[in-house]
Amino acid sequence: MKTTPLAAARLVAMRDLRLAFRKPSQVIQPLMFFMIVATLFPLTLTPEMSRLRDAAPGVLWIGALLSSLLALEFLFRDDAVDGTLEQFALSGQSLTWMLFAKTCTHWMLTGLPLALSAPIAAAALGVSVGAMVGVVASLALGSFAMSLVGAIGAGLTLGARRGGVLLSLLTLPLAVPILIFGARATQLAITGGDIAPPMYLLGAIAVLGVTLAPLAAAAAVRIGLE
Amino acid sequence: MNEFLDMGGYGKYLWPAFALGFGIVVLNLVLALNSLTSAKQEAKRRLEMSQ
Amino acid sequence: MATWTWFHRLASPPHVYAFARRWTPWFGGFAALAMGAALYGGLVLAPEDYQQKDAFRMVYVHAPTAWLSLMIYTTMAVAAAVGLIWRMKVAHAAAAACAPVGAWFTVAALGTGMLWGKPMWGAYWVWDPRLTAELVLLFLYFGYMGLRAGIEDPVKADKASAVLAVVGVINVPIIKFSVEWWNSLHQTATVMQMGKPKMDFDMLWPLLLMFLAFALYFVAVLLIRLRAELLRRERNASWVREVLA
What we know:
The complex is a heterotrimer of chains A (226), B (51) and C (245). By secondary structure, chain A is an all-alpha fold. Chain A has one domain. Helices cover 85% and strands 0% of the residues of chain A. Chain A is built from 9 helices and no strands. With 51 residues, chain B is mainly α. Chain B is built from 2 helices and no strands. Chain B has helices at 2-6, 11-50. The mean pLDDT of chain B is 90. Chains B and C meet through helix 2 of B and helix 2, helix 3, helix 4, helix 7 and helix 8 of C.
């Protein structure tokens, strides 16, 4: 039966979501990590809310970045270990589309929950309620771009020793634009400015990521599986 | 000559900058040549062992 | 067909090795001459800058190193892409040879930039877009070298790092843009742009000559490192035996 790339992608996505429900720890752990990191910053800086509010974009984004790097290890690892990834590559379906599907579900399970629960951390850092929509939106879009870029690194480091640290080293420089535009959007949201310009730039990066990142990730995975 | 070394007061930044830049130029040449020498030695050893 | 012979020679390790051996002294020699002339032109002949006085002369070492750090990364990415597309071992070897040189020149750019920044803005480190972008470039180099070192199989290491190099080179303009955008948001009273003084011809020609000198020098160093890489990769090929005899 010949399936279209989109249908294959949807099957992969459904499978990933089903598996994730059986192992909720993989979703909860990165989230907890984010919360803990956000808590550590005031301990290292100051309890003064006004000063924390100034630092909030940085705290939220560094926390999101680190949490995202941790979660990226789960993106391909289980499937690589049990041979599913190899089956995907050999299946004759578009590996690019399947990995795109995996990346999207990964974001739905890591980046999106993080963005939605960010208001808790943000409130603890002195951010007003009115800013929360902007905070969530910027983190949601930014974490989506992060998942796309991170998928490339995750694919490249599949066969490498100490892949976790290497993954961070590879991904962080590539994530600099996401960090700059995303943090600026969050900052504007907190101070009450117009978040549109940085959000558009972040969106442009996400679009570029959607078109190119799955291709690079598929190439990387194929190399790793050879 | 002293004027040249002084560079209008900026000498203490300028000369270290040139030393650093051109030092790295020389260093990379040396490192490259070392790399070639050791590659040749390794290859020689490998050939001797396989004979 | 002459064109295909040329291309096949480019892919053949013994031919490339012989070419490299022959031409390295020429590139090196001309590089040294050009560097000498450019240094004389920049340090002695060129008049001092209106604003920066003699401090501007640091451009003659900082700008070429910065330019080289970027040019080497691009060369590395192009070589990597050629290696991926046409499966040329020599291209992968060239990419590997570029990396450490590029990283060193990024360090040089950062160091000379800091030494230039101190008299100009009073601090060794400023989050100027050029310096910040150079720092990110250094991390990109480390990532590339780290990936190569982290993968056991040399063929996989070649290909994986090639993908990374191509992704990286696409990212470099985006990173530069984002860093410049970020810096422009937080414009302080003193405009912090890595001093690009307005140059009249007497100041410009030594700079252009220095760029040429560094480019020739890089080719020489690359050819030396490439030879080393080819020897290491070719193991027991018969041409290696002949070359070492």
